[in-house]
Amino acid sequence: MKKGISIKNLTKVFVINQKNKVVAVDDVTLEVKPGEFVTLLGPSGCGKTTLLRMIAGFETLTAGDIYIGEENIGAQTPDKRDTAMVFQNYALFPHMNVFDNIAYGLKIRKLPKTEIKQRVQKILDLMKMNDFAHRVPAQMSGGQQQRVSLARALVMEPGVLLFDEPLSNLDAKLRIHMRDEIRKIQKEVGITSIYVTHDQSEAMGLSDKIVIMKDGVIQQIGTPREIYQKPINAFVAGFIGKTNVVEGKIMSTNNSNYEVDIQGITHMVKSDNKLSVGDKVSMMLRPESIIVEGEQYDGIVTKSMFMGENHEYEVKWNDQILQISESNPFGRDIYEIGDTMKIGFDEKALHIL
Ligand SMILES: Nc1ncnc2c1ncn2[C@@H]1O[C@H](COP(=O)(O)OP(=O)(O)OP(=O)(O)O)[C@@H](O)[C@H]1O
Ligand SMILES: [Mg+2]
Fold it and tell me: Which terminus of the chain has fewer CB atoms gathered within 10 Å of its CB, N or C?
């Protein structure tokens, strides 16, 4: 049942009219290992849904190939593919109760009644939904309906599970609860999953791998940590988490170790980029990697906001504003707007773009 997905040079062009076309997915190549949970993340219109729909068989391919396991599925109709999809709007049958909604796909496949009953019961147990079995969708909350829609996909025991922003209609707290639940069940069942979202914390929390897309093109593929700590360009850095970009100049090189001058102070920075003395570089530095009361630079506080688990500052530093996040600033005064703040850069966290 566990199968990988192999996407090769996939392109989708929508023809709007004789003059206009949209390249929604542009030469995308992506490997998803069996059992892996991969998230497609990117701004509105970057091609996430289109890519997912091509895998499910709801869109034709303009070019390229999709394999599930060893099988090239690019020309198959959706019902022939070993995929199931969970939608944003649940797409449940309003007149059917939970049990029948979950059983529907199995009935279409003409499985024996006893087997259908067993399989639906197994999923109801797995998702702790026995109490809801006889309710119709209108008698349930959004979160409960979304669980039914997940159950309906899982009961098909597909090789590949596809999610298109399944949690975006839920409130913040329920979203986190459901996110954890999806991850738990996905691990338990071990289904290869592709999950579309534009919520970065959802992507970070759920994924083995994150795929960042822009204008139909993959920008970077990596673990949540790689994407957060080593984004390959300013777009990725800015898309996932808050970030600062500071400019510097290479003063000396030693293999992958560089001495970088930033505003008259030298920092040791590691990078896999090939750089030479005199090169100007842009570096990313996350808000939590700027040290409050570090002894390197002076800045003027322009925003000061207590957020509970951390305190967020904006600090004017030379010609730019730095975002700074300090966690649990106990036992120390908070800086107010207009205060001078001494700051330092955590060299390990400086990442050359
Ligand atoms: N059926 C269609 N006909 C023409 N253009 C389309 C069609 N479907 C999508 N597009 C265009 O393709 C591009 C990608 O759309 P897609 O729905 O895949 O984006 P998305 O990343 O899912 O965005 P969102 O986060 O808003 O859901 C957009 O420019 C969109 O306008
Ligand atoms: Mg979409």
Answer: N
Q: Cα separations (Å) of 15 from 19, 21, 22, 75, 289?
A: 9, 4, 6, 20, 46
Q: Which fold, 5-238?
A: Rossmann fold (3.40.50)
3 state DSSP class of 153:
helix
Query: How many whole angstroms from 167 Cα to the centroid of ligand 1?
Result: 19
Distance 132 CA to ligand 2 centre (A): 30
Output the pTM of the full model.
Answer: 0.87
Report the pLDDT averaged over residues 74-98: 91
CA gyration radius, the chain: 25
The CATH topology of domain 242-352 is: OB fold (Dihydrolipoamide Acetyltransferase, E2P) (2.40.50)
Model confidence over 237-262: pLDDT tens digits? 988 888 999 999 999 999 999 999 99
pLDDT digits (tens, 9 = 90+) for 33-71: 999 999 999 999 999 999 999 999 999 999 999 999 999
Ligand 1 site-directed mutation target among 41, 44, 49, most atoms within 8 Å of CB: 49
